[in-house]
Q: What sequence folds into this?
C-alpha cells in the first residue's frame, strides 16, 4: 500500500491501489509543477485516505472548476479530488513508496513546452484521453 507525503511531512496519505499514472503537458500543470509536465497517479476515491495534515491543504482555482491543492506550510503540490472525473489526482512525486505503476501515456501534448522533446514510446494525446476527461462517464 503506497504512502506519500509533502515536502515538510505535514500532509500524509495512502492509496490501496493506483490504477494509472499519466503525464500532463497542459500549461497549468507545467506552471504548477515548475517542470516540463506534471505526472499524476489517478486514484479512485475508495482507494485514497488521508493519514494526517488534511487541515494544511490549501486550494487554488486555476480555472473555473479546476482546483489545484498545495501544502500551506511547504508549498508542495498535494492530492486533489477532481470532481468532474470522480478521481483523486495524486502528484506522483509525493509517493514515499513505489506505487506499483509507471506512466502509461502523455496527454495535452498540443500544449507541451516547446523546449521539451517527447522521446519515449508512450501513447500521446493532443488533448484529453478519449473517455477519460472531465464529465466523461466511465
A:
Amino acid at each position: 500500500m503506497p504512502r506519500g507525503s509533502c515536502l515538510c511531512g505535514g500532509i500524509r496519505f495512502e492509496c490501496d491501489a493506483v490504477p494509472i499514472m499519466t503525464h500532463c503537458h497542459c500549461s497549468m500543470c507545467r506552471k504548477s509543477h515548475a517542470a516540463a509536465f506534471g505526472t499524476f497517479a489517478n486514484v479512485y476515491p475508495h482507494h485514497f485516505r488521508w493519514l494526517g495534515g488534511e487541515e494544511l491543504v490549501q486550494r487554488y482555482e486555476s480555472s473555473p472548476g479546476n482546483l489545484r491543492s498545495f501544502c500551506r506550510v511547504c508549498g508542495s503540490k498535494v492530492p486533489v479530488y477532481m470532481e468532474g472525473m470522480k478521481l483523486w489526482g495524486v502528484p506522483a512525486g509525493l509517493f514515499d513508496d513505489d506505487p506499483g505503476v509507471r506512466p502509461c501515456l502523455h496527454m495535452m501534448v498540443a500544449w507541451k513546452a516547446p523546449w521539451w522533446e517527447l522521446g519515449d514510446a508512450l501513447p500521446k494525446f493532443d488533448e484529453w484521453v478519449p473517455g477519460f476527461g472531465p464529465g466523461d462517464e466511465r
